[in-house]
């Protein structure tokens, strides 16, 4: 493409025939003819790498007004918001996305909702994809991902590939980082959704209000006026979210016990499934949801709401709920001991999620609830004692272990949890912690291994060593049976 093809996105001359061979925000990835976007980041300022980008052959540099870049030998284009400009430029450069796209935000449930919405669409006969924490899933494609919301260049490259492969529908997760950093600003969205809000990422957002505001960008900055906003109705943060979506001129569709669009009339939880009565447009549907975890019915309602808001008939969307498969590592039953005690792997790595998952299994546990968990290094330190308290209150046996200590001293992370977890057992080595917990299980007990879910590695220092909770649980169950 030529620079002039970015008119409307960037302040460029209509006559500029400078060739643009790609867009980049990391100077180390700049190839000849790429447009380099200098972004102010959390660790570095991209403007300091503009000269490096120019040396590597960048055709032009896009930078914030007042960045003071000159003498680079390439044109400098000034904009108010380089991250927003990057997102729009990446969308224009790759030039294609699945026709119908939706995004879901909220503290918990995004990965599950994206996966469920894909499955409902699939059931309704559409070629559908989901994009998020567990990676990309589409017909013939299942790839592990790294970020919940990919950066705009990776995202639009992917969306174009999906569209070219015939994918017409895609559901993606909108993390608060992704929204704040404008990663989704170039995506054309047909609908958005909100699940809930709890404590998360307090290392990035100064206050919970700031965190909520970042999430609201989906509704007040990204969705076009009149677009449907599917909002879970039973969360303390539902009302302010509904108010913001209405103020932004969206068509608000609430789901849940207090929902107008999909109303949960009754639900009976069983250990591995739940039976629900849901009202849609005056009709009552009886649904048998084949998933453990009280919260999954809420995620299922949000997903059905998204599918319906984008044209899937209610009867079809709700019937699809009976076939749902949980996202990997979300209250995932890995196995049971010979005496029938189940072991679940779950991705609860924040307070509300831990509280929900432990409360969910209690009614079906005649013996003890055991939990193995830790907290990630280089992440919100404030959640450590909170999670220690929750585990101690809701489980009978608490084993505190490591979960991606990253650059921090693992003993110190554990100590911060242990300080609020009297009686907890501390076993730093996660493998050993899992094996010991499995060895302790008696008939009637339930074990939850929380925090890593689908992850395939343990990051210690700068190194990520292969590690899977699923594999360790299976190995421990085999060892116990032997
Ligand atoms: C804190 C954070 O969100 N960081 C993300 C952010 O990086 P940044 O802009 O702060 O980068 P920086 O290191 O300060 O550098 C500034 C700029 O200089 C550039 N640079 C840097 C060095 C160089 O030699 N040349 C160069 O051009 C960088 O490419 C960048 O554009 O933008 C990058 C590109 O999009 C992301 O890769 C990076 O994610 C890091 C790896 C990360 O760990 N992010 C996590 C916290 C995250 O985003 N998580 C959310 C939520 C997870 C969830 O709850 O599910 C997610 O969506 O995954
Ligand atoms: N609707 C919900 N309400 C409360 N807790 C939930 C809900 N859905 C999922 N959880 C809990 O949160 C964990 C993560 O779920 P999921 O991966 O679907 O959410 P997410 O928003 O994508 O999280 P992350 O931001 O960590 O990727 C689950 O393993 C479960 O413990
Ligand atoms: N997207 C989240 C995942 C955390 C998962 C947990 N296992 C940890 O490492 O803290 C983050 O990067 O903060
Ligand atoms: Mg997720």
UniProtKB/TrEMBL annotation:
A motif (Meso-diaminopimelate recognition motif) lies at residues 403-406. Its main location: cytoplasm. Coiled coil: none annotated. Meso-2,6-diaminopimelate binds at residues 379, 403-406, 451, 455. Pathway: Cell wall biogenesis; peptidoglycan biosynthesis. Its EC number is 6.3.2.13. One of its GO terms (cellular component) is cytoplasm. It catalyses: UDP-N-acetyl-alpha-D-muramoyl-L-alanyl-D-glutamate + meso-2,6-diaminopimelate + ATP = UDP-N-acetyl-alpha-D-muramoyl-L-alanyl-gamma-D-glutamyl-meso-2,6-diaminopimelate + ADP + phosphate + H(+). It is found in: Cytoplasm. Its cofactor is Mg(2+). UDP-N-acetyl-alpha-D-muramoyl-L-alanyl-D-glutamate binds at residues 27, 148-149, 175, 181, 183. Residues 104-306 form the Mur ligase central domain. Residues 20-93 form the Mur ligase N-terminal catalytic domain. Residues 329-453 form the Mur ligase C-terminal domain. The modification N6-carboxylysine is found at residue 215. ATP binds at residues 106-112. Carboxylation is probably crucial for Mg(2+) binding and, consequently, for the gamma-phosphate positioning of ATP. One of its GO terms (biological process) is cell wall organization. Catalyzes the addition of meso-diaminopimelic acid to the nucleotide precursor UDP-N-acetylmuramoyl-L-alanyl-D-glutamate (UMAG) in the biosynthesis of bacterial cell-wall peptidoglycan. HAMAP family: MurE. This is UDP-N-acetylmuramoyl-L-alanyl-D-glutamate--2,6-diaminopimelate ligase. It comes from Mesorhizobium hungaricum.
């Amino acid at each position: 493409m030529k620079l002039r093809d970015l008119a409307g996105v960037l302040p460029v001359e209509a006559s500029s025939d400078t060739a643009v061979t790609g867009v980049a925000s990391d100077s180390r990835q700049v190839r000849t003819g790429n447009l380099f976007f200098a972004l102010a980041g959390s660790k570095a300022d991209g403007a300091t790498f503009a000269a490096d980008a120019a040396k590597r052959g960048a055709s032009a540099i896009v930078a914030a007004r007042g960045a003071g870049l000159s003498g680079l030998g390439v044109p400098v284009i000034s904009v108010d918001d380089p991250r927003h400009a990057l997102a729009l430029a990446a969308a224009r450069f790759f030039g294609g996305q699945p026709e119908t796209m939706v995004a879901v935000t909220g503290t918990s449930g995004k990965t599950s909702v994206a996966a469920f919405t894909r499955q409902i669409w699939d059931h309704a006969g559409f070629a559908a994809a989901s994009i998020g924490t567990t990676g990309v899933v589409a017909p013939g494609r299942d790839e592990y991902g790294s970020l919940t919301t990919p950066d705009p260049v990776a995202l639009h490259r992917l969306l174009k590939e999906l569209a070219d492969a015939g994918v017409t529908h895609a559901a993606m997760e909108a993390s608060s980082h992704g929204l704040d950093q404008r990663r989704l600003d170039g995506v054309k969205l047909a609908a958005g959704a909100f699940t809930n809000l709890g404590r998360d990422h307090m290392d990035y957002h100064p206050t919970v209000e700031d965190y909520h505001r970042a999430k609201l960008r989906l509704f007040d900055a990204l969705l076009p006026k009149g677009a449907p906003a599917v909002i879970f109705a039973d969360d303390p943060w539902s009302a302010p979210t509904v108010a913001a979506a209405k103020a932004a001129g969206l068509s608000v569709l609430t789901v849940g016990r207090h929902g107008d669009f999909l109303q949960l009339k009754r639900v009976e939880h069983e250990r591995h499934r739940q039976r629900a009565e849901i009202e849609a447009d005056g009709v009552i549907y009886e649904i048998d949801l084949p998933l453990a975890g009280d919260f999954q019915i809420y995620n299922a309602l949000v997903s059905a709401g998204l599918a319906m808001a984008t044209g899937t008939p209610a009867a079809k969307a709700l019937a699809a709920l009976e076939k749902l498969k949980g996202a990997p590592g979300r209250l995932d039953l890995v196995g049971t001991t010979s005496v029938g005690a189940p072991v679940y792997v779950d991705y609860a790595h924040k307070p509300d999620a831990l509280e929900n998952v432990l409360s969910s299994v209690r009614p079906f546990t005649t013996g003890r609830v055991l939990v193995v968990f830790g907290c990630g290094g280089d992440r919100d330190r404030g959640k450590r004692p909170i999670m220690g308290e929750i585990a101690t209150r809701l489980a009978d046996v608490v084993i505190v272990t490591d979960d991606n200590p990253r650059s921090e001293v693992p003993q110190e992370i554990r100590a911060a949890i242990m300080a609020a977890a009297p009686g907890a057992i501390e076993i730093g080595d996660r493998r050993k912690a899992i094996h010991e917990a499995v060895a302790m299980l008696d008939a009637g007990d339930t074990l939850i291994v929380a925090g890593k879910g689908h992850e395939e590695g343990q990051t210690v220092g700068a190194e990520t060593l292969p590690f899977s909770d699923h594999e360790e649980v299976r190995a421990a169950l085999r060892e116990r049976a032997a």
